[in-house]
Write a structure and sequence with these properties.
Elements (H helix, E strand, L loop, with lengths): L2 H18 L4 H15 L2 H13 L5 H9 L2 H32 L2 H13 L4 H12 L5 H19 L3 H18 L4 H9 L4 H30 L16 H10 L5 H26 L7 H9 L2 H12 L11 H31 L2 H8 L8 H16 L2 H12 L12 H11 L9 H10 L3 H29 L5
């Protein structure tokens, strides 16, 4: 089977398994990986192995072993390799997020930002809070935390509820797709061979600018949509009233702001410092020394997240004693689910690469002008996202397809911009296939028709703005570091 048909089959199999058969994403990706591996021609696998030997990535013995392996063995090896790259990071990030939520640290951060900016600038406060919390915490959880505050602000001001909802999306949703250690950006960085620290720097730059312009789009959508505020509907009926929730947040003992921010700031600072130091050493700005070795060692993604987790343990005194063990267990269990999905996606990308997707995609886009590769990556990801709903799966699948062109030689800009374009493409279009669409609509009391007029346009705006910002950055400063 030619690589073109193999790509079509792989994408179709993933979509069919998730949408029609309702399989868990892990099973859908795993079965598709095995199918692709089994259908890969021996000649294509042999050619891949020879290319890896030629560039020094495999020895002759390792290449021969690869060609002798069965399809399931190659998938298992690829899955294990992916877990080795991202497993610890995702698990530790999940623990950090769980402790931030259970200790009240997340509420402390939100309250501090709101108090600093003021209720008159509530949309900006909500967007900023969601952006910060979206780094270690999944967007669904961020939204659960922020929605009572949005309802409370609506009660106080009497207006702006839909704008508040869109502000949460403007901050938290874009972070989920651009900035590690959320699983999508981590796996995309691994597939396109981008350092996680560089991914974080670029994600901050693109994401923060995107959030600013997305908030302007939110104001336009809010005026156009005209959705009435409803006190309770669906899932809202089981939630505590926002008045009670706000009063509780003001009266209960919350951890100090410094301790609340520490688990977020520590990994960010360590990862960024390590990446910048490595880049300066490569550019021979200064020579290696014991100090640079220490900075680079602590800038390793696993060590940085481990230190961040140790910092998060400082929040345990503020977690209810009866909930401590359960909170950590739930965080680890949630991480396990994400790790399996991400690892299976990595395995699919690996077997596609072994089948020759790199050469095929490279020849396909060889005539595409430099910056236009970014809209191409955006459209591929957006198409997968719109059909099957999951931003993370769309990013992983798209990165697996595009990994063949993700090199400094093939691109006129740093590969991190390709990763940013893939992240931008994971935003549109949020509609009935997206679980977040239902969470947002149910918890905000919107009907399906209203949600399609509010959430879907906002997701499109987020994606297009992020793509535009990425293209501007790639044109102005293609080298990144």
């Amino acid at each position: 089977m030619t690589i073109g048909w193999l790509i079509v089959l792989a994408v179709s199999a993933v979509l069919f398994s998730i949408i029609c058969l309702r399989l868990h994403a892990f099973l859908a990706l795993l079965f598709t990986s095995i199918l692709v591996a089994a259908l890969t021609l021996e000649s294509d696998l042999q050619r891949f192995a020879e290319e890896q030997v030629a560039v020094g990535k495999l020895t002759a013995a390792e290449a021969a072993e690869l060609c002798a392996q069965s399809a399931t063995t190659r998938v298992a090896m690829a899955l294990g390799d992916t877990v080795g790259k991202i497993g610890i990071v995702i698990a530790l990030a999940s623990v950090i997020g769980g402790l931030l939520m259970e200790s009240g640290a997340a509420s402390r951060i939100v309250n501090a930002i709101l108090n600093r900016i003021g209720e008159k600038r509530a949309p900006e406060a909500l967007a900023t809070s969601s952006f910060v919390l979206g780094i270690p915490v999944f967007f669904d959880t961020v939204f659960y935390l922020m929605i009572p505050l949005a309802r409370s602000l609506q009660r106080k001001t009497g207006k702006g509820f839909i704008l508040y909802i869109l502000a949460i999306m403007a901050g938290g949703s874009i972070t989920h797709s651009l900035i590690p250690p959320t699983p999508g950006p981590i796996q995309v960085a691994a597939l396109v061979n981008v350092d996680i620290g560089v991914m974080m720097i670029a994600g901050f730059a693109v994401g923060s600018v995107t959030s600013v312009f997305a908030l302007l789009s939110a104001r336009v959508i809010d005026r156009w949509a005209k959705v009435p505020y409803r006190e309770s509907s669906g899932a809202l009926a089981s939630m505590p009233s926002t008045g009670d929730s706000n009063e509780r947040l003001e009266k209960e003992t919350l951890p100090p702001l410094f301790l609340a921010l520490l688990p977020i700031l520590v990994p960010v600072v360590l990862l960024t410092s390590g990446s910048i130091t490595s880049a300066l050493l490569s550019a021979e700005v200064f020579e290696a020394s014991p100090l640079t070795d220490v900075v680079r060692r602590f800038g390793d993604k696993n060590i940085a997240l481990l230190i961040g987790t140790l910092a998060a343990f400082g929040l345990i005194p503020w977690v209810d004693a009866e909930k401590r063990r359960g909170a950590l267990s739930a965080a680890v269990a949630s991480a396990g689910n994400i790790i399996l999905i991400t690892a299976a996606g990595g395995a699919l990308g690996r077997v596609l690469y072994q089948a020759g997707i790199g050469e095929a995609v490279g020849s396909l886009v060889s005539g595409v002008p430099g910056l236009l590769l970014l809209p191409l990556a955006f459209l591929i990801t957006a198409a997968i996202r719109t059909v099957q709903g999951s931003a993370t799966i769309a990013m992983i699948t798209s990165a697996g397809i595009l990994q063949g062109i993700a090199s400094a030689e093939a691109l006129p800009f740093h590969p991190v911009y390709l990763a940013m374009a893939i992240g931008a493409g994971s935003k549109p279009i949020s509609w009935m296939t997206d679980s977040a669409f239902w969470i947002i609509s149910e918890m905000s009391g919107m009907t399906e028709r209203e949600a399609l007029r509010v959430i879907s346009p906002m997701s499109i705006a987020l994606g297009l703005i992020a793509l535009s910002v990425t293209m501007v950055f790639a044109a102005i400063y293609p080298a990144v570091l």
